[in-house]
Design brief:
Arc Repressor Mutant, subunit A, four-stranded antiparallel β-sheet, 14 helices, Aspartate Aminotransferase, domain 2, 460 residues, Aspartate Aminotransferase, domain 1, globular, alpha/beta
Length: 460
């Protein structure tokens, strides 16, 4: 037995572990006698009380027994069935490949997150906040109040604090909504769209139907054929096609929801803040006179994805059911994070942060457009919103080849078709070029690689 006197673990625990492992591995047989406490203490140069503590732990867990005037003996503990290494399929975590350049459309600029401002709020104001020790399953009232004010001022949405629920991402909010509706709904999803929702819907037993996107957003004609009670829409900047739903299509969906009870639109306004045209697009919720729109927003791109703070505005008709499930759905966002965001908004930092971020992303957008504007054989589509462009290559049908060739040159990019549900296809594929993560200099270098790769692909 080897005792490590420099170890952080107490000596009696080391003795206990030695005998426990030896008994489990069969080194000590049933009924075999262990050394006496004094003998073992002398052999390994420790105090008798140390050995006593180890033996008492072994006795309490049933590994050994003490027989008066006879000593300590190994109990019959049975055997543990173990597989040979050859019988076990070893699963190793696949390492993520690192890229020199990334055009991923879901990533923002980490250098622009207001870390210093949060640090100041945390050290100077947080511990004095009266809500620090409170717990509200719906989210802290102070943050809900600031969100209410922001929605009215920036998005034209009139609501109350009681209708706002604070949570941690779209998935959590949808799970809450499914519990409210008791999973007795069929959900229409935009195709292509937020593909990761597919697993969430299957696990929760939610019926869903992917509906193809046309030039105006989700096809209303195909939506009606699907006979759904819910429609999940991103009308201000469809993900990932960046299609803006015109007012006629918005009113078609709104009139559908108003026509019968139990119908709702879920409006995910995920990056509405980042619009570079003079006027922002109003959400469907701002037109919702009959309270049939469930509005969802978040702070992932406007402040930081590390916070994981999102919110949902529930119609009055669903509040009673929501309060009925509240023991199951406490807000997963900590008070510390909620107070940070609340104070950030209350003190005017959020509005300044949005203006700052819009300026940063607009400069990146213009840099990427400028780097690609003179290239022949391509067509760029800029929705003047969000954080990505679409690039079409004339005569190219298989964009996966282009993605693979870029991957070999350490450039990460995706296509519209990579966001389709199941075996559905898109009528026209394109390369998606997100400009949120890279610097302006990196965007210029990455754009040059894209153009060179397209040229090489055409020469094959």
């Amino acid at each position: 037995m080897q005792i490590d006197l420099k170890s952080d673990r107490p000596i009696y625990e080391q003795i206990y572990e030695y005998f426990k492992d030896a008994i489990l591995e069969g080194c000590f047989k049933k009924g075999e006698k262990l050394p006496s406490k004094r003998t073992l203490a002398r052999d390994i140069s420790v105090a008798v009380n140390t050995v006593t503590s180890a033996y008492e732990m072994l006795i309490s867990e049933g590994y050994i027994r003490s027989e008066e005037k006879r000593g300590y003996f190994v109990n019959d503990i049975g055997t543990i069935y173990t597989l040979k290494h050859d019988d076990v399929e070893i699963s190793t975590r696949k390492e993520k490949k690192s890229y020199k350049y990334s055009f991923l459309i879901t990533q923002g600029d980490p250098e622009s997150y207001p870390i210093d401002r949060f640090r100041k709020i945390f050290t100077q104001e947080l511990i004095y906040d009266t809500e620090f020790y409170e717990r509200d399953y719906q989210g802290l009232y102070g943050l809900r109040h600031e969100i209410k004010n922001y929605l009215f001022k920036a998005r034209g949405i009139k609501t109350n604090e009681d209708n706002i629920i604070i949570s941690s991402g779209l998935e959590y909010l949808l799970m809450t909504l499914f519990l409210i509706l008791q999973n007795k709904v069929k959900l229409a999803l935009e195709n292509p769209g937020y593909k990761v929702l597919e697993t969430l819907l299957r696990v929760n037993g939610i019926a869903y139907e992917p509906i193809d996107i046309d030039e105006s957003g989700m096809s209303f004609e195909n939506f009606l054929k699907a006979d759904c009670e819910l429609a999940l829409l991103t009308p201000s900047n469809q993900f990932p096609t960046a299609t803006v739903m015109p007012i006629k299509r918005r009113l078609e969906f709104l009139n559908w929801a108003n026509a019968a009870s139990g119908r709702y639109i879920i409006e995910d306004d995920y990056d509405s803040e980042f619009r570079y045209a003079p006027r922002a697009i109003s959400p469907i919720k701002s037109l919702d006179e009959m309270d049939r729109v469930i509005y969802i927003g978040n702070f992932s791109k406007s402040i930081s994805p590390l916070l994981r703070v999102s919110y949902m505005v529930l119609p009055n008709a669903l509040l009673h059911e929501y309060h009925g499930i509240r023991p199951l759905m406490n807000s997963p966002v900590s008070n510390i994070v909620q107070i940070l965001v609340k104070d950030f908004m209350k003190e005017g930092h959020f509005e300044r942060q949005l203006n700052r971020m819009k300026g940063i992303y607009n400069r990146k957008r213009l840099t990427l457009l400028d780097a690609l504007k003179d290239a022949s054989g391509i067509r760029l589509v800029d929705s003047m919103a969000g954080m990505h462009l679409k690039l079409y290559v004339s005569g190219l049908d298989d964009y996966s080849r282009l993605v693979q060739m870029l991957d070999k040159r350490s450039v990460k990019a995706e296509t519209i078709s990579s966001y389709t549900f199941g075996k559905k296809s898109v009528s026209e594929d394109a390369l998606l070029l997100g400009y949120g993560l890279m610097s302006e200099k990196e965007l210029e270098s990455a754009a040059a690689i894209v153009l060179d790769t397209i040229k090489n692909l055409k020469n094959l």
